[in-house]
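@channel sequence for tomorrow's demo:
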Amino acid sequence: MESDAAARAALLASLDLLDSPAEEEFDRITRLLARVLDVPIALVSLIDTHRQWFKSRVGLDISETPLAVSFCAHAVAADAPLIINDARQDDRFADSPLVLGAPFIRFYAGVPIHAGNGTALGTLCAIGRQPRELQPDELQVLHDLAHIVERELSYRESSRTARQVIHHSDELVRESQSRLKITFEQAAVGIALVEPDGRWQRVNARLCSIIGYSESELMRLTFQDITHPADLQTDLHLIERLIQHEIPHYSLEKRYIHKDGHPVWINLTVALIRKANGEPHYFIAIIEDIQGRKDTEEALSALRHQLEMRVLERTRELSQANDRLAVALHQGQLASRTLATREAELMAILRNAPDAYISMDDSGRITEWNRQAEVMLGWDRGEAVGQHLDRLIVPEALREAHRHGLQRYLRTGVAKVINQRVELSALRRDGTELPVEIRITALPNENGQLFCAFITDITERKRLQSFLLAQALRDPLTGLPNRRALLDRLPEAVARAKRSGQALAVLFIDLDGFKAINDRLGHQSGDAVLQQFAQRVSTCIRRSDTLARLAGDEFVVLLEGMANPDPDQDPAQVARKILAEAAEPFELGEGVQGRIGASIGIAVYRRGDPEDSALLLKAADERMYRAKAEGKGQAWMVASGLAPAPQEGEEGANIT
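structure tokens (generated this afternoon):
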């Protein structure tokens, strides 16, 4: 133990940490810990030989306490997390002056922080004045933040970690380049890097498809060559303002000239990347095809300020690392500039992305969440990052499949949704679901796999599909279900009747005398009769029953759930009501009335009968023709358990 204390004291002395001024790198971590765990006190505590000294503190005025009363010393001695739910109930601390007096500690959670050689230097701890239990995800947050403290401490050991930091810098650059390439090539919009003189530096496949040129053909042209002459001066004027620092970027609607000569309307967004000396380096152009929806403005959203701060922090961290790595100064500076350029490109692209962009690691935790994801799904970026994706946006019914799919891919490299366009349902913050199209790419990185997804809201597309399907199943004259809808519903109704044991009746109705009205008074009068007849029949049946127009003057009624001898459920009684309604005069306009009748055939399905909906409809049709043959204005029923017994030698009975 004494050797550990001596080694720790020597290492702290070499790092110049004890009694050093406050540093934002550590204070940011304690502020974040206090906010995330909702505690009044958060500390980075370093264990000296006779005291604990606070390198960073939130909610505590003193900078050190004697080692004898230190909670943190216990965690360091055990080199393991120390969780005290209620200090008053813990024999080790119940009589501590820090418990009985200020700061009145009741809850304590501390995780050891180590130097690069594994020596425990102190703890990152959260302190509360009320007893509580630390949840697993809160302990994970404490571990993660302690790791960040350890990483900051490792920078102090630059002479021993130079090669590791250089390798880390290279990995960050390669990951950034890989993410940029995937984003660049798979974006749903055209993206181009353009030289200050208008020559194309780099273009993606989507831009080539918008204007019809291959990449090699386009690289031989300038943006001026393919811009419509009427729009060129406006574009050039905005570029000049951008170069002169008058505007940070610009957007406008303009026309390109397609390779085949026709104009293509696009929405163009341009940002300028400058060299270190402030001179123009190249432009980043985002091109969205808006031909066919010219009247709809699809504004591109900017990434939140937090994303900009994150890029600046990462750049600053690399810069600080490079300052400490004197041996590798040139290589570190080059890596920093390269990373900053790639991050700036990625930031500009994601800022203007019209789709939601989400990334997650191979544990399923969200690592990135852009502004469009906030708008679409309702969660702020700060709330989403670090959460498990399946708990946040995957509907409960799909979560198990999502987890199995992720594990299968990590185990075998096989997945159904990677590099595919897949339509799924996404869960919004308010609990509602919306249909989306998702495109996922998997990228290997130093920690395993990174999954990048672009998500498009397809609510309007689905609404249009549903509308068209509903129209296809609806009779335009009467608004009733049509033949196709009936043939879809009838097998389902037979299956329900079979399961429930309740009978199902089919009434096949044909109007008597309708052709005479149609021929004598015209189709407009005939249409009026059909519409009025449909309304009348609707009053004779229950809301749970189905009335459909089969064709012309033929209608079909499905009566379900006939379990009891209820008059309202008796097909014969319903048929009599319909015949009575059909016999009443029909208003044909301008004081003209018409009279028709109806013939009805009835077939009844009961459990035990053949489960054949086509046969049931045919039987009702045949009974309808029998009713017409018997003099019209009648209803005939196939013999069944729910119908009157037929007379001897007959297949059915006249119920009127």
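heads up for whoever presents: The radius of gyration is 38 Å.
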